[in-house]
């Protein structure tokens, strides 16, 4: 598959409207505070951003609450430091309903079919919320993650965006042009909580439990 430069596409898109003095409304699906950091820094000069926090993939609920509260704190501090007015909308948490279709892919490795469906469901929430609430664009922070393939995420968005014809999808590759470096810097600057696993119980099993088991074996 030929690689598409989504970073260049995102810059061309903002250039389309910024010279006209426009500041479109963007519904941003955000997974966590670290992934929101540079993403907001990138987007807020061009867009009036509202974070749509829908991450029912996260298990257990205590971890969901921790990440949700951290996003709220980060946005509050980001707004003060940068004289911005980013808003956050929290959609209801329903882990069992969210995981229903994903469980068939329980044994898939991270990055496989289970994750593709998980990305899709969360991008849909941003498109749906944006299209029902008068937004111009929707997108996700997911392309900033080192562990996630931006080509795959944008291809999924391309497939589902036509279902929401009254809103545009903002294609992105936030990790490009030192995006990841800025995440590292901003994590320190805002003292952000960094989770140890992606989100669902399967990622917990495959990262945290696997690491602990390895340590136990080494200590024997
Ligand atoms: S590993 Fe992450 S992206 Fe994949 S299904 Fe679990 S929570 Fe979703």
Give the structure's gist in a few sentences:
By secondary structure, this protein is of the alpha/beta class. It has helices at residues 6-18, 33-43, 61-82, 95-99, 113-132, 150-160, 179-189, 201-219, and strands at residues 25-29, 48-53, 87-90, 137-140, 168-169. The protein has a single domain (6-219), classed as HUPs (Rossmann fold, 3-Layer(aba) Sandwich), CATH 3.40.50.
What does this structure look like?
With 220 residues, this protein is an alpha/beta fold. The chain has a single domain (6-219), classed as HUPs (Rossmann fold, 3-Layer(aba) Sandwich). It is 51% helix and 10% strand. It is built from eight helices and five strands; from the N terminus they run H-E-H-E-H-E-H-H-E-H-E-H-H. It has a five-stranded parallel beta sheet, with helices on both faces. Strand 1, helix 2 and strand 2 form a beta-alpha-beta unit. It is globular, with a radius of gyration of 17 Å. The N and C termini lie far apart (46 Å). It binds iron/sulfur cluster. The site of iron/sulfur cluster (SF4) has 11 residues, from helix 5 and helix 8.
Strand and helix layout:
Elements lengths: L5 H13 L6 E5 L3 H11 L4 E6 L7 H22 L4 E4 L4 H5 L13 H20 L4 E4 L9 H11 L7 E2 L9 H11 L11 H19 L1
Helix pairs in contact: 2-3, 2-7, 5-6
Bound molecules: iron/sulfur cluster.
Iron/sulfur cluster (SF4) binds next to α5 and α8.
Structural descriptors:
globular; binds iron/sulfur cluster; alpha/beta; single chain; Rossmann fold; 5 strands; 220 residues
Unreliable spans are none
Kindly report how far apart the N and C termini lie: 46 Å
Radius of gyration: 17 Å
Structural class by helix and strand composition: alpha/beta
Estimated share of beta-strand residues: 5-15%
Structure summary, number of beta strands: 5
Tell me the overall shape.
Answer: globular
CATH superfamily caption? HUPs
Overall CATH architecture? 3-Layer(aba) Sandwich
The bound ligands are: iron/sulfur cluster
CATH topology label: Rossmann fold
Order of helix and strand elements from N to C terminus: HEHEHEHHEHEHH
DSSP helix count?
Answer: 8
**How does the major sheet shape up?**
5 strands, parallel
Cross-sheet strand order for the largest sheet: 3-2-1-4-5
CATH C-level label: Alpha Beta
Share of helical residues: 40-55%
Mean pLDDT: 95
Total tally of structural domains: 1
């Amino acid at each position: 598959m030929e690689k598409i430069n989504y970073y260049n596409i995102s810059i061309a898109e903002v250039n389309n409207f910024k010279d006209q003095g426009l500041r479109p409304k963007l519904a941003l699906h955000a997974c966590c505070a670290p992934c929101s950091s540079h993403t907001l820094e990138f987007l807020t000069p061009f867009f009036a951003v509202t974070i749509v926090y829908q991450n029912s993939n996260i298990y257990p609920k205590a971890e969901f609450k921790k990440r949700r509260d951290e996003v709220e704190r980060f946005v509050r501090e980001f707004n003060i430091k940068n004289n911005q007015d980013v808003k956050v909308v929290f959609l209801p948490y329903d882990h069992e309903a969210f995981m229903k279709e994903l469980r068939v892919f329980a044994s898939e490795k991270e990055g496989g079919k289970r994750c593709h469906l998980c990305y899709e469901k969360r991008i849909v929430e941003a498109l749906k919320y944006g299209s029902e609430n008068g937004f111009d664009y929707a997108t996700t922070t997911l392309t900033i993650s080192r562990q996630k393939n931006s080509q795959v995420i944008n291809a999924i968005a391309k497939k589902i965006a036509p279902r929401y014809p009254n809103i545009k999808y903002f294609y992105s590759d936030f990790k490009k042009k030192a995006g990841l470096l800025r995440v590292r810097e901003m994590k320190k600057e805002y003292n952000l909580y960094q989770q140890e696993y992606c989100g669902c119980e399967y990622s917990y099993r495959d990262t945290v439990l696997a690491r602990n088991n390895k340590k136990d074996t080494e200590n024997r």
